[in-house]
Amino acid sequence: MLSAGLVEEAWAGPALRRSRGTKEISNRQNLEDAFARTLDAIEHDAAFPQVEIVQRITQPTRESVAFIVTIDRPGGVDLALCERIAARLNASLGPIEVPYALQVESAGLERPLMKPHDYQRFAGKRARVVTTLSIEGAKTHRGVLRGVRGQNVVLETSKGELPLPIATIKSANLEYDPRVDFQRDKRERKGTHPW
Questions:
Q1: What is the distance between the alpha carbons of residues 45 and 26, in angstroms, rounded to a whole number?
Q2: Which CATH class is domain 23-106?
Q3: Alpha helices in 14-54 (DSSP H)
Q4: Among 6, 32, 42, 175, which is least packed, fewest CB within 10 Å?
Q5: What are phi and psi of 68, to 5 degrees?
Q6: Cα 51 from chain centroid?
Q7: To the nearest whole number, what is the mean pLDDT of the chain?
Q8: Could you report the per-residue pLDDT of 122-180, keeping only the tens digit for each?
Q9: What are the distances in angstroms from CA 122 to CA 7, 74, 106, 166?
Q10: pTM of the entire structure?
Q11: Nearest to 175 by CA among 149, 155, 148
Q12: What is the tens place of the pLDDT at every residue in 81-133?
């Protein structure tokens, strides 16, 4: 008998696990290999000009595999491009008899910065960088990217230039500030209207 507010708990023992056969493991590996090969081919395919694979994630689950692909290209990514890339991947992965989920997404306005050349490419843009170690009393740093110098990403902050060792960067992304767009639009409207 339980008193008010008490909960009785019972432990049922370890969950039963279905053993995976050699064929299932082999099929799963074939699926993951086909995913990687297809993405590498897409980056060099004339049908997908200037498409960059920003990030690729493979998440095995108990019964299937989830694939997440983040893409970008100059001028941005639209839904039609995501659909075309998903169709190409589905055509490569479909014949392999392993259930999977596929998500193709745009890098967006707050694009992740994954490779050292990203910091150089987006120099002059606002960014947020999270480090594994505290640097100047913080792990999260915001400012304007100034590129890469040696083994450091240089971020211009309100206190001046801040070198962040690449080896300590946990994550980084561009930061979109809508106020900049609003100010630009306001200036453009003032320039086109005489009043």
A1: 28
A2: alpha beta
A3: 22-43
A4: 6
A5: -125, 125
A6: 15
A7: 85
A8: 999 999 999 999 999 999 999 999 999 999 999 999 999 999 999 999 999 999 888 87
A9: 56, 12, 17, 15
A10: 0.73
A11: 155
A12: 999 999 999 999 989 889 999 999 999 999 999 999 999 999 999 999 999 99
Please give the Cα distance from 105 to 128 (Å, whole number): 21
DSSP-assigned letters across all residues of 66-114:
EEEEEEE-TT---HHHHHHHHHHHHHHHTTS-S-EEEEEEE--TT-B--
For 27-44, what is each residue's pLDDT tens digit?
889 999 999 999 999 999
CA distance 126 to 64: 38
Residue 102, token pair as written in the block: 């596929």
- For the chain, how many residues are written? 195
Q: What token pair was written down for 3?
A: 């008193």
Give the full edge-to-edge strand order of the sheet including 126-135: 160-165, 152-157, 138-149, 126-135, 169-174
Count other C-beta atoms under 10 Å from residue 168's C-beta: 16
CATH of 116-177, one of 2.30.30.100, 3.20.20.60, 3.30.160.20, 3.40.50.720: 2.30.30.100
| CB 121, CB 107: distance < 8 Å | no
